[in-house]
Design brief:
CATH class of the largest domain: Alpha Beta
Distance between the termini: 63 Å
Number of helices: 11
Largest sheet: 5 strands, mixed
Strand content: 15-25%
Number of domains: 3
Structural class: alpha+beta
CATH architecture of the largest domain: Alpha-Beta Complex
Oligomer: single chain
Order of helices and strands: HEEEEHEEHHEEEHEHEEEHEEEEHHEHH
Radius of gyration: 29 Å
Number of strands: 18
Protein backbone atom coordinates (compact mmCIF):
# COMPACT_ATOMS: atom_id res chain seq x y z
CA UNK A 1 0.00 0.00 0.00
CA UNK A 2 1.30 3.45 -0.95
CA UNK A 3 1.82 6.04 1.81
CA UNK A 4 -0.94 8.67 2.10
CA UNK A 5 1.39 11.54 1.29
CA UNK A 6 2.39 9.81 -1.97
CA UNK A 7 -1.24 9.29 -3.04
CA UNK A 8 -2.14 12.87 -2.17
CA UNK A 9 0.81 14.16 -4.22
CA UNK A 10 -0.17 11.96 -7.14
CA UNK A 11 -3.79 13.15 -6.98
CA UNK A 12 -2.68 16.79 -6.92
CA UNK A 13 -0.49 16.21 -9.97
CA UNK A 14 -3.36 14.57 -11.86
CA UNK A 15 -5.68 17.43 -10.95
CA UNK A 16 -3.22 19.94 -12.42
CA UNK A 17 -3.17 17.93 -15.63
CA UNK A 18 -6.92 17.43 -15.83
CA UNK A 19 -8.37 18.81 -19.06
CA UNK A 20 -11.24 21.24 -18.55
CA UNK A 21 -13.37 23.43 -20.82
CA UNK A 22 -11.37 26.38 -22.10
CA UNK A 23 -7.98 24.74 -21.65
CA UNK A 24 -5.35 24.89 -24.38
CA UNK A 25 -3.08 21.90 -25.01
CA UNK A 26 0.45 22.42 -26.38
CA UNK A 27 2.51 19.57 -27.77
CA UNK A 28 5.89 19.47 -26.01
CA UNK A 29 7.44 16.48 -27.78
CA UNK A 30 6.94 14.40 -30.90
CA UNK A 31 7.69 16.78 -33.76
CA UNK A 32 9.22 15.81 -37.08
CA UNK A 33 11.02 17.67 -39.91
CA UNK A 34 7.69 18.12 -41.72
CA UNK A 35 5.53 18.66 -38.64
CA UNK A 36 7.19 20.81 -35.97
CA UNK A 37 6.43 20.31 -32.29
CA UNK A 38 4.26 22.95 -30.66
CA UNK A 39 0.87 22.11 -32.14
CA UNK A 40 -2.05 23.54 -30.16
CA UNK A 41 -5.59 22.30 -29.48
CA UNK A 42 -8.51 24.07 -27.83
CA UNK A 43 -10.81 22.09 -25.52
CA UNK A 44 -14.39 23.46 -25.63
CA UNK A 45 -15.77 20.97 -23.06
CA UNK A 46 -14.71 19.16 -19.89
CA UNK A 47 -13.21 15.88 -21.08
CA UNK A 48 -12.87 14.18 -17.70
CA UNK A 49 -9.40 13.08 -18.75
CA UNK A 50 -5.81 14.11 -18.18
CA UNK A 51 -2.85 14.83 -20.44
CA UNK A 52 0.40 12.90 -20.73
CA UNK A 53 3.82 14.33 -19.94
CA UNK A 54 4.26 15.19 -23.62
CA UNK A 55 1.39 17.69 -23.44
CA UNK A 56 1.29 21.02 -21.60
CA UNK A 57 -2.15 21.88 -20.20
CA UNK A 58 -2.51 25.67 -20.26
CA UNK A 59 -5.02 27.43 -18.02
CA UNK A 60 -5.75 30.87 -19.46
CA UNK A 61 -5.70 33.75 -16.96
CA UNK A 62 -8.95 35.53 -16.19
CA UNK A 63 -8.07 38.77 -17.96
CA UNK A 64 -7.70 36.99 -21.32
CA UNK A 65 -10.25 35.27 -23.55
CA UNK A 66 -9.52 31.54 -23.90
CA UNK A 67 -10.42 31.22 -27.56
CA UNK A 68 -8.56 34.37 -28.52
CA UNK A 69 -5.41 33.01 -26.88
CA UNK A 70 -5.87 29.71 -28.69
CA UNK A 71 -6.23 31.42 -32.08
CA UNK A 72 -3.14 33.49 -31.30
CA UNK A 73 -1.06 30.39 -30.48
CA UNK A 74 -2.46 28.55 -33.49
CA UNK A 75 -1.45 31.43 -35.75
CA UNK A 76 2.03 31.45 -34.22
CA UNK A 77 2.35 27.79 -35.17
CA UNK A 78 0.93 28.16 -38.68
CA UNK A 79 3.13 31.18 -39.40
CA UNK A 80 6.31 29.22 -38.65
CA UNK A 81 7.34 31.35 -35.69
CA UNK A 82 7.64 28.21 -33.55
CA UNK A 83 10.51 26.83 -35.64
CA UNK A 84 13.08 28.53 -33.44
CA UNK A 85 11.77 26.55 -30.47
CA UNK A 86 12.48 23.12 -31.95
CA UNK A 87 15.12 21.03 -30.18
CA UNK A 88 16.31 17.60 -31.27
CA UNK A 89 18.54 15.63 -28.91
CA UNK A 90 17.45 12.12 -29.93
CA UNK A 91 15.27 10.86 -32.75
CA UNK A 92 12.37 12.93 -31.38
CA UNK A 93 12.00 16.68 -31.78
CA UNK A 94 11.07 18.45 -28.54
CA UNK A 95 9.59 21.89 -27.96
CA UNK A 96 11.43 24.50 -25.88
CA UNK A 97 8.35 25.52 -23.96
CA UNK A 98 10.08 27.89 -21.51
CA UNK A 99 11.60 29.87 -24.38
CA UNK A 100 8.24 29.82 -26.17
CA UNK A 101 6.60 31.45 -23.16
CA UNK A 102 8.86 34.48 -23.68
CA UNK A 103 7.54 35.11 -27.22
CA UNK A 104 6.31 38.71 -27.40
CA UNK A 105 2.91 39.34 -28.96
CA UNK A 106 0.61 42.34 -29.27
CA UNK A 107 -3.00 41.82 -28.18
CA UNK A 108 -6.01 44.03 -27.45
CA UNK A 109 -6.04 45.26 -23.85
CA UNK A 110 -9.80 44.91 -23.49
CA UNK A 111 -11.04 41.36 -23.02
CA UNK A 112 -14.26 42.31 -24.78
CA UNK A 113 -12.27 43.11 -27.94
CA UNK A 114 -10.49 39.76 -27.70
CA UNK A 115 -13.87 38.05 -27.39
CA UNK A 116 -15.23 39.94 -30.40
CA UNK A 117 -12.33 38.84 -32.61
CA UNK A 118 -12.49 35.25 -31.35
CA UNK A 119 -16.23 35.16 -31.98
CA UNK A 120 -15.73 36.32 -35.58
CA UNK A 121 -13.12 33.62 -36.26
CA UNK A 122 -15.21 30.96 -34.55
CA UNK A 123 -18.27 31.90 -36.61
CA UNK A 124 -16.21 31.77 -39.79
CA UNK A 125 -14.99 28.30 -38.84
CA UNK A 126 -18.59 27.17 -38.37
CA UNK A 127 -19.58 28.63 -41.74
CA UNK A 128 -16.58 26.92 -43.36
CA UNK A 129 -17.53 23.55 -41.82
CA UNK A 130 -21.18 23.97 -42.90
CA UNK A 131 -20.16 24.95 -46.44
CA UNK A 132 -17.75 21.99 -46.72
CA UNK A 133 -20.52 19.63 -45.57
CA UNK A 134 -22.94 21.16 -48.09
CA UNK A 135 -20.42 20.79 -50.93
CA UNK A 136 -19.85 17.14 -49.99
CA UNK A 137 -23.62 16.56 -49.96
CA UNK A 138 -24.11 18.18 -53.38
CA UNK A 139 -21.19 16.19 -54.80
CA UNK A 140 -22.88 12.98 -53.66
CA UNK A 141 -26.16 14.14 -55.19
CA UNK A 142 -24.40 15.05 -58.43
CA UNK A 143 -22.77 11.60 -58.60
CA UNK A 144 -26.22 10.02 -58.33
CA UNK A 145 -27.62 12.44 -60.91
CA UNK A 146 -24.83 11.64 -63.39
CA UNK A 147 -25.37 7.92 -62.92
CA UNK A 148 -29.09 8.31 -63.66
CA UNK A 149 -28.57 10.65 -66.62
CA UNK A 150 -25.99 8.35 -68.22
CA UNK A 151 -27.96 5.18 -67.49
CA UNK A 152 -31.57 6.19 -68.21
CA UNK A 153 -31.25 9.46 -70.12
CA UNK A 154 -34.11 11.90 -70.71
CA UNK A 155 -37.04 11.58 -73.08
CA UNK A 156 -38.48 14.14 -75.52
CA UNK A 157 -40.29 15.89 -72.65
CA UNK A 158 -37.08 16.24 -70.67
CA UNK A 159 -38.13 13.63 -68.10
CA UNK A 160 -35.80 10.94 -66.80
CA UNK A 161 -36.64 7.54 -68.28
CA UNK A 162 -37.38 4.48 -66.18
CA UNK A 163 -37.98 0.87 -67.12
CA UNK A 164 -41.53 1.18 -65.77
CA UNK A 165 -42.49 3.85 -68.30
CA UNK A 166 -40.00 3.44 -71.17
CA UNK A 167 -38.58 0.63 -73.24
CA UNK A 168 -35.07 -0.65 -72.46
CA UNK A 169 -32.85 -3.33 -73.95
CA UNK A 170 -29.91 -5.49 -72.88
CA UNK A 171 -26.37 -4.56 -73.89
CA UNK A 172 -22.82 -5.70 -73.28
CA UNK A 173 -22.48 -3.12 -70.50
CA UNK A 174 -25.95 -3.23 -68.97
CA UNK A 175 -29.52 -2.19 -69.72
CA UNK A 176 -29.93 0.90 -71.90
CA UNK A 177 -32.84 2.79 -73.50
CA UNK A 178 -33.82 1.46 -76.91
CA UNK A 179 -32.92 4.89 -78.33
CA UNK A 180 -29.29 4.37 -77.32
CA UNK A 181 -26.38 2.32 -78.70
CA UNK A 182 -23.20 0.87 -77.28
CA UNK A 183 -20.25 2.12 -79.28
CA UNK A 184 -16.49 2.03 -79.04
CA UNK A 185 -14.57 5.31 -79.10
CA UNK A 186 -12.75 4.09 -82.21
CA UNK A 187 -16.05 3.84 -84.12
CA UNK A 188 -17.02 7.46 -83.46
CA UNK A 189 -13.64 9.17 -83.08
CA UNK A 190 -10.25 9.39 -84.65
CA UNK A 191 -7.78 8.95 -81.76
CA UNK A 192 -4.80 11.30 -81.98
CA UNK A 193 -1.91 12.23 -79.70
CA UNK A 194 0.99 14.65 -79.62
CA UNK A 195 4.60 14.66 -78.53
CA UNK A 196 7.16 16.37 -76.33
CA UNK A 197 9.54 18.72 -78.18
CA UNK A 198 13.15 18.23 -77.10
CA UNK A 199 13.66 19.66 -73.64
CA UNK A 200 17.32 20.45 -74.32
CA UNK A 201 16.23 22.96 -76.97
CA UNK A 202 14.28 25.10 -74.56
CA UNK A 203 14.92 28.44 -76.24
CA UNK A 204 13.89 27.13 -79.65
CA UNK A 205 10.87 25.06 -78.61
CA UNK A 206 9.52 26.54 -75.35
CA UNK A 207 10.81 30.04 -74.60
CA UNK A 208 8.13 32.67 -75.35
CA UNK A 209 5.88 29.93 -76.75
CA UNK A 210 2.34 30.98 -77.67
CA UNK A 211 0.73 27.58 -78.32
CA UNK A 212 -0.85 25.99 -75.21
CA UNK A 213 0.68 22.54 -74.65
CA UNK A 214 -1.35 20.09 -72.53
CA UNK A 215 0.25 17.54 -70.20
CA UNK A 216 -1.46 14.93 -68.02
CA UNK A 217 -1.31 17.21 -64.99
CA UNK A 218 -3.41 19.78 -66.87
CA UNK A 219 -6.32 17.34 -67.06
CA UNK A 220 -8.75 18.10 -64.23
CA UNK A 221 -12.05 16.52 -65.38
CA UNK A 222 -13.27 19.86 -66.71
CA UNK A 223 -12.59 22.63 -69.23
CA UNK A 224 -9.04 23.70 -70.10
CA UNK A 225 -8.61 27.42 -70.69
CA UNK A 226 -4.88 27.61 -69.96
CA UNK A 227 -1.94 25.26 -69.52
CA UNK A 228 1.19 25.12 -67.40
CA UNK A 229 3.43 25.27 -70.48
CA UNK A 230 3.37 26.54 -74.05
CA UNK A 231 5.42 25.69 -77.12
CA UNK A 232 6.62 27.74 -80.08
CA UNK A 233 5.54 27.63 -83.72
CA UNK A 234 8.96 26.12 -84.46
CA UNK A 235 8.28 23.26 -82.02
CA UNK A 236 4.98 22.61 -83.77
CA UNK A 237 6.71 22.47 -87.17
CA UNK A 238 9.67 20.32 -86.05
CA UNK A 239 7.86 17.75 -83.84
CA UNK A 240 4.86 15.45 -84.01
CA UNK A 241 2.71 17.96 -82.17
CA UNK A 242 -0.51 19.18 -83.74
CA UNK A 243 -3.11 21.70 -82.71
CA UNK A 244 -6.48 20.29 -81.61
CA UNK A 245 -9.68 22.35 -81.88
CA UNK A 246 -11.93 23.71 -79.15
CA UNK A 247 -14.19 21.03 -77.58
CA UNK A 248 -11.70 18.22 -78.17
CA UNK A 249 -11.98 15.71 -75.30
CA UNK A 250 -8.65 14.53 -73.90
CA UNK A 251 -7.87 11.27 -72.05
CA UNK A 252 -4.72 10.56 -70.01
CA UNK A 253 -2.96 7.31 -70.96
CA UNK A 254 0.13 7.36 -68.71
CA UNK A 255 0.95 8.12 -65.10
CA UNK A 256 -0.34 5.24 -62.96
CA UNK A 257 -3.71 4.59 -61.34
CA UNK A 258 -4.15 8.19 -60.24
CA UNK A 259 -3.75 9.54 -63.77
CA UNK A 260 -4.96 7.05 -66.38
CA UNK A 261 -8.44 7.85 -67.60
CA UNK A 262 -8.38 11.45 -66.36
CA UNK A 263 -10.22 13.69 -68.79
CA UNK A 264 -10.67 17.29 -69.84
CA UNK A 265 -12.20 19.26 -72.70
CA UNK A 266 -10.35 21.99 -74.57
CA UNK A 267 -11.88 25.45 -74.46
CA UNK A 268 -8.92 26.85 -76.34
CA UNK A 269 -6.97 25.40 -79.27
CA UNK A 270 -3.95 23.49 -77.94
CA UNK A 271 -1.35 20.82 -78.61
CA UNK A 272 -0.68 17.85 -76.30
CA UNK A 273 2.14 15.55 -75.33
CA UNK A 274 2.29 11.84 -76.18
CA UNK A 275 0.69 10.77 -72.87
CA UNK A 276 -2.72 12.05 -73.93
CA UNK A 277 -5.29 10.80 -76.42
CA UNK A 278 -7.32 13.43 -78.25
CA UNK A 279 -10.79 12.39 -79.47
CA UNK A 280 -11.65 13.88 -82.89
CA UNK A 281 -15.30 13.14 -83.78
CA UNK A 282 -16.18 11.55 -87.11
CA UNK A 283 -19.78 12.84 -86.91
CA UNK A 284 -21.95 15.31 -85.01
CA UNK A 285 -21.54 14.38 -81.33
CA UNK A 286 -21.95 16.56 -78.24
CA UNK A 287 -18.48 16.46 -76.74
CA UNK A 288 -19.66 17.61 -73.31
CA UNK A 289 -21.71 14.40 -73.17
CA UNK A 290 -18.65 12.32 -74.13
CA UNK A 291 -16.69 13.95 -71.32
CA UNK A 292 -19.39 12.89 -68.82
CA UNK A 293 -19.59 9.35 -70.20
CA UNK A 294 -15.85 8.88 -69.85
CA UNK A 295 -15.85 10.24 -66.32
CA UNK A 296 -18.63 7.88 -65.25
CA UNK A 297 -16.78 4.90 -66.73
CA UNK A 298 -13.30 5.86 -65.55
CA UNK A 299 -12.93 2.87 -63.21
CA UNK A 300 -13.22 0.60 -66.27
CA UNK A 301 -9.77 1.65 -67.45
CA UNK A 302 -8.29 -0.47 -64.66
CA UNK A 303 -9.55 -3.57 -66.45
CA UNK A 304 -7.33 -2.88 -69.46
CA UNK A 305 -4.34 -1.07 -67.94
CA UNK A 306 -0.96 -2.71 -68.43
CA UNK A 307 2.42 -1.99 -66.92
CA UNK A 308 5.85 -2.62 -68.33
CA UNK A 309 7.29 -0.16 -65.82
CA UNK A 310 6.38 0.91 -62.31
CA UNK A 311 3.12 2.62 -63.26
CA UNK A 312 0.21 1.11 -65.22
CA UNK A 313 -0.63 2.70 -68.58
CA UNK A 314 -3.28 2.38 -71.26
CA UNK A 315 -2.62 2.36 -75.00
CA UNK A 316 -4.16 3.98 -78.05
CA UNK A 317 -5.75 0.61 -78.85
CA UNK A 318 -7.32 0.54 -75.37
CA UNK A 319 -8.82 3.96 -76.00
CA UNK A 320 -10.18 2.93 -79.39
CA UNK A 321 -11.82 -0.18 -77.92
CA UNK A 322 -13.28 1.59 -74.87
CA UNK A 323 -17.08 1.31 -74.91
CA UNK A 324 -19.62 3.95 -73.88
CA UNK A 325 -23.41 4.32 -73.89
CA UNK A 326 -24.44 6.85 -76.53
CA UNK A 327 -27.90 8.33 -77.25
CA UNK A 328 -28.52 8.44 -80.99
CA UNK A 329 -30.14 11.86 -80.64
CA UNK A 330 -27.71 14.77 -80.50
CA UNK A 331 -30.46 16.74 -78.75
CA UNK A 332 -30.62 14.22 -75.91
CA UNK A 333 -26.84 14.29 -75.59
CA UNK A 334 -27.01 18.08 -75.33
CA UNK A 335 -29.82 18.02 -72.73
CA UNK A 336 -27.96 15.53 -70.53
CA UNK A 337 -24.86 17.72 -70.67
CA UNK A 338 -26.94 20.81 -69.84
CA UNK A 339 -28.49 19.25 -66.74
CA UNK A 340 -25.11 17.97 -65.56
CA UNK A 341 -23.50 21.35 -66.16
CA UNK A 342 -26.16 23.08 -64.05
CA UNK A 343 -25.38 20.74 -61.15
CA UNK A 344 -21.65 21.45 -61.29
CA UNK A 345 -22.30 25.20 -61.46
CA UNK A 346 -24.09 24.98 -58.10
CA UNK A 347 -21.11 23.17 -56.57
CA UNK A 348 -18.67 25.66 -58.07
CA UNK A 349 -20.68 28.55 -56.59
CA UNK A 350 -20.43 26.98 -53.14
CA UNK A 351 -16.72 26.31 -53.64
CA UNK A 352 -16.18 29.99 -54.44
CA UNK A 353 -18.06 30.85 -51.24
CA UNK A 354 -15.78 28.48 -49.33
CA UNK A 355 -12.69 30.11 -50.81
CA UNK A 356 -14.00 33.51 -49.74
CA UNK A 357 -14.67 32.30 -46.19
CA UNK A 358 -11.17 30.81 -45.95
CA UNK A 359 -9.69 34.05 -47.24
CA UNK A 360 -11.60 36.07 -44.64
CA UNK A 361 -10.48 33.72 -41.89
CA UNK A 362 -6.87 33.92 -43.06
CA UNK A 363 -7.10 37.73 -42.97
CA UNK A 364 -8.41 37.75 -39.42
CA UNK A 365 -5.82 35.21 -38.26
CA UNK A 366 -3.03 37.21 -39.90
CA UNK A 367 -4.10 40.33 -38.01
CA UNK A 368 -3.73 38.51 -34.69
CA UNK A 369 0.05 38.75 -35.11
CA UNK A 370 0.19 42.06 -36.96
CA UNK A 371 0.08 45.43 -35.20
CA UNK A 372 -2.44 47.82 -36.84
CA UNK A 373 0.38 50.06 -38.13
CA UNK A 374 2.03 47.12 -39.90
CA UNK A 375 -1.03 45.41 -41.34
CA UNK A 376 -1.33 44.83 -45.05
CA UNK A 377 -2.97 47.71 -46.98
CA UNK A 378 -6.06 45.61 -47.68
CA UNK A 379 -6.48 44.41 -44.07
CA UNK A 380 -9.29 46.90 -43.28
CA UNK A 381 -11.15 45.80 -46.41
CA UNK A 382 -10.82 42.14 -45.43
CA UNK A 383 -12.08 42.89 -41.93
CA UNK A 384 -14.97 44.95 -43.33
CA UNK A 385 -15.91 42.07 -45.60
CA UNK A 386 -15.85 39.71 -42.63
CA UNK A 387 -17.99 42.11 -40.59
CA UNK A 388 -20.59 42.17 -43.39
CA UNK A 389 -21.21 38.46 -42.90
CA UNK A 390 -22.42 39.08 -39.38
CA UNK A 391 -24.27 42.36 -39.88
Amino acid sequence: MFPAYFLNSFKAKLKRRQIQAGDILIEKSGGSPTQPAGRVVYCPIDTGGTASNFIEVCKVREQFDNRYVFYLLYTLYQSGRVMKYQQQTTGIINFKLNDYKEEAVIIPVEKAEQQRIAERISTLEQLIAQTEALIAKHERLRAGLLHDLLTYGVDEQGRRRSEETHEFKDSAIGRIPVEWDITSLGEKFSIKSGSTPLRNRHERYYLHGTIPWVKTLDLDEGPIYETQESITETALAESSCQIFPVDTVLVAMYGGWEQIGRTAILKKEAATNQAISALIPRENIQMEYILLALQLGRRNWKKVAISTRKDPNITKSDVENFQIKLPRSSEEQREIARIAHASIQDIEYRQRSLEKLNRLKAGLMHDLLTPPTAQAPDAPAVLQEAEALFA
